Task: inverse folding
């Protein structure tokens, strides 16, 4: 009985997170907001559903399998999200017009592929 | 209502609806990167669907497929990001 309750709880939570991620990717106004939805909510939802499957089979071999899939998802999702966001920003994908902050504005030289930190002058002063 | 019925009649339709919503973004997506992200999210939901299906079918061998699919999603996104960056450079 306890096992069924746990399975239903975790699979419902996971499905809810995934539904929120799908609505978010459809409704968000801007590529970067959509990207954040994908990386966080969907990975969380898939993790919850895999935990539910680990409870369902309740064997050592299956639990390690499910945990390795979760570990893999949690390690790779931020890496791929960062890479696609980086190439999107450098290829000139526009931000939402109501965005407040763009930290990289004016610091990237697209012609020569140089990314400045904005602290170059301070460092020069320190060196002298 | 057993667990299998709950998974079949409530969880699976929610996941199918999510895939449908993501596919709308996949067809609309103004830039290439939007489509790449939609594809990535589709595959993440695919991993969840495989896990639910392995519970419905009571067969734990399907979880191996979920692992391979997660690997392919990562490789695909990284390759897309790399080639988009190369295209910008030219």
Result:
């Amino acid at each position: 009985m306890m096992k069924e309750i746990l399975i239903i709880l975790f699979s419902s939570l996971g499905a809810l997170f995934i539904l929120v991620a799908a609505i978010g990717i459809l409704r968000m106004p801007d590529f970067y907001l959509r990207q954040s939805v994908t990386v966080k909510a969907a990975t969380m939802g898939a993790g919850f559903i895999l935990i539910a499957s680990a409870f369902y089979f309740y064997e050592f071999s299956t639990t390690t399998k499910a945990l390795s899939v979760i570990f893999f998802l949690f390690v790779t999702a931020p890496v791929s999200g960062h890479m696609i966001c980086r190439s999107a920003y450098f290829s000139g994908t526009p931000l939402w017009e109501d965005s407040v902050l763009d930290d990289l504005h004016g610091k990237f030289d697209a012609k020569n592929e140089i990314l400045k930190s904005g602290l170059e002058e301070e460092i020069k002063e320190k060196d002298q | 209502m057993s667990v299998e019925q709950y998974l079949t009649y409530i969880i699976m339709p929610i996941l199918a609806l999510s895939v449908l919503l993501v596919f709308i973004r996949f067809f609309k997506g103004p830039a290439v990167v939007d489509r790449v992200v939609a594809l990535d999210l589709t595959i993440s939901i695919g991993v969840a669907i495989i896990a639910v299906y392995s519970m419905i079918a009571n067969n734990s061998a399907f979880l191996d497929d979920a692992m391979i699919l997660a690997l392919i999603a990562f490789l695909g996104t990284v390759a897309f990001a790399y080639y988009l960056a190369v295209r910008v450079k030219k």
The helical segments of chain B are 3-28, 32-57, 62-89. The mean pLDDT of chain B is 90. The two ends of chain B are 59 Å apart (CA to CA). Chain B touches chain A through 49 residues (CB under 8 Å).
